[in-house]
Amino acid sequence: MLSYLQGELHLPLTKAANTLTNFAGTASLTPLIGAFIADSFAGRFWTITAASFIYQIGMISLTASAVLPTLRPPPCKENHMCQVANSSQLAILYVSLLLTAIGSGGIRPCVVSFGADQFDETDPKQKTRTWKFFNWYYFGMGVSILVAVTVIVYIQDNIGWGWGLGIPTIAMGLSIITFILGYPLYRNMDPVGSPFTRLVQVIVAASKKRKVPMVSDPNLLYENEELDAGISATGRLLHSKQFSFLDKAAIVTNEDNLKSPNLWKLNTVHRVEELKSIIRMGPIWAAGILLITAYAQQGTFSLKQAKTMNRHLTASFQIPAGSMTVFTIVSMLSTITLYDCLLIRIARRFTGLDRGITFIQRMGIGFVISIVATLVAGFVEIKRKKAAITYGLVDKPDSIIPISAFWLVPQYGLHGVAEAFMSIGHLEFFYDQAPESMRSTATALFWTAISVGNYLSTFLVSVVHKYTAKPNGTNWLDDNLNKGKLENFYWLITILQIINLVYYLICAKFYKMKPIEFRKKEEEGENGVELAQKV
């Protein structure tokens, strides 16, 4: 898309980069809306279906803008004078991207949780498969991205943008048909009402009873299994000592009707603990933002670096700059495979955990590797600029510097390894620690972290571009990278990530897992005996 915005619509680098990060940010923010719709009344299947059709319309519109000459500016002239896309042409682009962003809002938070719903958590064997599902879900997504950045990018560069965008559009249409045809096979969870309403009810009830004395024994707090049946099918949340001021929402007074309580005045312990779980997840959620900010540079400035370097594999074939992310995807896929097939088995011997290591530890490893990735990126940029100086190409930004683009492989590869650890660990964390009735919402938080990370990238790029400008018109993120100071931008992100790692370690140390009582049923003669296991 960066190549499309610059090469076809002739947008400046910073505007093109910010357009993409803003689009990525919006596409990762809309999942909050999709999750709300799915968890409240529509259910995950119908939310995915409706959102997929919206996404399809956006793809058709985007493909049309690449095919119809009137929807894009004319080609650049021989003297490199280019006409930037006008307001109406940009409007078509923005509407197309907006539709796909809205469609993503219904697909992203629901697909992974809908897939995990197909396993029964009350069955220990199936619960283990749930964690394998996260690895292989991400693996499948990685394979599709690999096809996109190789086959599709090659088509875009060598055949045309009509086919380059048309093929994904056709593929999306086929996927919608396939998904709908599978409806009879799915295990569907019924929506149980707005999770946000329940959270607000707890806050309001606790506020109204703020002057009521706290009970001496937590067992005296209000419980109603019948009322909570729809939102605690796999297990009931138990009382925790954190955020005890919220417990007042579950204190029973003489005014309360225990059989049919007013939930704006009295809530169960389970509902109070739902809110506590979401609050506890907040600091860990925030820690994932900067990793996305660092990762976002691969689609913008790292790609720009690749465009200035020798990408030839043979005398007649060179890797498209947009395909350099293949090294990120390959390293991510390799890491996931190695992790699932080997590392987990080794780790089990030391930890005794089915998943090898906790998702908290998995995320921490990802943070460390991401720091190394941006550090390496800075040193590679210094080497690239020295080569530009050596060959006298500083003032020729469109010239290819005789230095291999494979120098970029370490930074691309390290980002892939970091994502395999951090992103999947983050996804596991949200699904596991969220209340069961809010799992679409929790998965949306994963995408929201991606959203904020992309917006933060836009903010950093804009601030750095503005405050590093020199009187001669150059700045750190100059369109001519040979005159800019891109390595300083990478150093800045590295420093921010180190600070973020310290913050994460503090959050991880004080984080408390949600207290839950899992229920499972076993057949004993003709009667089902309900067993409970506290975790």
Automatic annotation (TrEMBL):
Matches recorded under InterPro entries: MFS_trans_sf, POT_fam
Key words of the record: Membrane, Transmembrane, Transmembrane helix
Top-level taxonomic group: Eukaryota
Entry's localization field: Membrane
Chain ranges passing through the membrane: 20-38, 45-71, 91-115, 136-155, 161-186, 317-339, 359-380, 445-469, 489-511
Annotated GO CC locations: membrane
Lipid bilayer topology: Multi-pass membrane protein
Pfam families named in the record: PTR2
A single GO molecular function term of this UniProt record: transmembrane transporter activity
Family: Belongs to the major facilitator superfamily. Proton-dependent oligopeptide transporter (POT/PTR) (TC 2.A.17) family.
Name of the protein in question: NRT1/ PTR FAMILY 3.1
Organism annotation: Thalictrum thalictroides
